[in-house]
């Protein structure tokens, strides 16, 4: 649009002409446009972008040592209206002079501050130096509408004097020593790593050799077993055939033995058993016959004893008739004698009945012990009679 102008984002538009408020010679426009009436108004632009100024100055320290100092200053026009007007009044037609003037201002403050410090302080405390220079120049820069964003000390040297090098020599020596120590440690670590690597390689080679030897031993063993498998199998087969033949021969011998037992031993045992049974039967028969004969003879003996008992008693009584007896008890003593004879007769009968029977080999008749016992009967009866005839004691 004719007469309408807009400044760039990093510019300030200054409109002059017409009425203004106060003593301000310009109308400042930033961030938007404005109408500029041709022929009656005039517009100019002031940069608000960041500017840079470099300073290279020879400065003398508190110790009298000359140092070459290089620094870089980053600055710009302030954003407020007062700063823009102040900068425009000084640099609007020659804006490049802002860097020149800024460098001169900082060079003066740099010489002043370095003159109050020692070389050691300057070297060790560069940030302190930069801060003091900024603080000293801030007010002066604000009067010309400029603000400083940063000050960077780039280099400091003694122009070949060797003071800074001598000052840094102990540190350099310590650094070199540390570097040598570090290098020695690194070399030692490298040597140890190399030794460890060689040891691992040797161990791996040893393990590989052991494994190969084991594999070779297993292969040789398998080959040997395979080579022996044929003869071993043949020998095993022959042994099994021999065992089978032995077993068959043993079975044949056992079968023949069983046949011999069936053909020879069993008939002989059967015949012997038959003869034994017949002998036992004959013996049992003879035993039964003997027991029967003995029983028959005892019955006959008992009958004969019973028949002969009166005769025995009678003969005993006859013996008493010829005996010289004195009966002291009268009729009672005589009764005792008679009772004794009877009881003795019964005892003689039992004794004779319990006697053994003998066979007369010549006559094959049973011989009774009556004959041998006749005298005993007689003497027994007489003894009894005498005891009956004795007078009682007292």
TrEMBL record:
Pfam families the UniProt entry points to: Band_7
GO biological process: protein localization to plasma membrane
UniProt cross-references to InterPro entries, sorted A to Z: Band_7, Band_7/SPFH_dom_sf, Flotillin_fam
Domain Band: from-to ranges: 1-171
One GO CC annotation: plasma membrane
Main location: membrane
UniProt xrefs under Gene3D superfamilies: Band 7 domain
Subcellular localization(s) per the UniProt record: Membrane
Family designation: Belongs to the band 7/mec-2 family. Flotillin subfamily.
Protein name: Flotillin family protein
Organism: Mycobacterium kansasii
Biological classification of the source: Bacteria, Bacillati, Actinomycetota, Actinomycetes, Mycobacteriales
């Amino acid at each position: 649009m004719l007469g309408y102008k807009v400044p760039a984002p990093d510019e300030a538009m200054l409109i002059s002409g017409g009425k203004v408020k106060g003593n301000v010679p310009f109308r400042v426009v930033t961030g938007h446009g404005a109408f500029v009436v041709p022929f009656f108004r005039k517009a100019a632009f002031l940069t608000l972008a960041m500017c840079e100024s470099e300073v290279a100055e020879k400065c003398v320290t508190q110790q009298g040592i000359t140092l070459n100092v290089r620094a870089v200053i980053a600055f710009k026009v302030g954003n407020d209206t007062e700063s823009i007007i102040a900068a425009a009044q000084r640099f609007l037609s020659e804006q490049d002079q802002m860097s020149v003037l800024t460098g001169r201002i900082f060079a003066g403050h740099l010489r002043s501050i370095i003159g109050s410090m020692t070389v050691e302080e300057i070297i060790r405390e560069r940030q302190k130096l930069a801060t003091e220079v900024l603080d000293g120049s801030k007010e002066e820069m604000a009067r010309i509408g400029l603000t400083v964003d940063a000050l960077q000390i780039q280099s400091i040297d003694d122009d070949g004097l060797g003071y800074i090098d001598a000052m840094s020599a102990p540190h350099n020596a310590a650094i070199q020593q540390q570097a040598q120590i570090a290098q020695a440690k690194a070399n030692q670590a490298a040597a140890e790593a190399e030794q460890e690597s060689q040891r691992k390689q040797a161990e791996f080679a040893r393990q590989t050799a052991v494994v190969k030897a084991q594999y070779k031993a297993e292969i040789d063993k398998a080959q040997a077993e395979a080579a022996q498998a044929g003869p071993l199998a043949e020998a095993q087969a022959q042994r099994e055939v021999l065992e089978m033949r032995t077993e068959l021969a043993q079975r044949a011998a056992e079968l023949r033995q069983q046949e011999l037992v069936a053909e020879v031993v069993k008939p002989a045992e059967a015949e012997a058993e038959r003869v034994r049974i017949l002998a036992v039967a004959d013996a049992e028969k003879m035993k039964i016959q003997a027991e029967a004969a003995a029983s028959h003879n005892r019955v006959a003996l008992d009958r004969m004893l019973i028949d002969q008992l009166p005769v025995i008693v009678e003969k005993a009584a006859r013996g008493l008739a010829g005996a010289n007896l004195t009966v002291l008890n009268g009729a009672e003593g005589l009764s005792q004698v008679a009772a004794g004879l009877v009881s003795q007769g019964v005892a003689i009968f039992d004794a004779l009945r319990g006697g053994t029977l003998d066979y007369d080999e010549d006559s094959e008749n049973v011989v009774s012990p009556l004959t041998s016992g006749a005298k005993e009967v007689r003497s027994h009866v007489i003894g009894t009679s005498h005891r009956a005839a004795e007078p009682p004691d007292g």
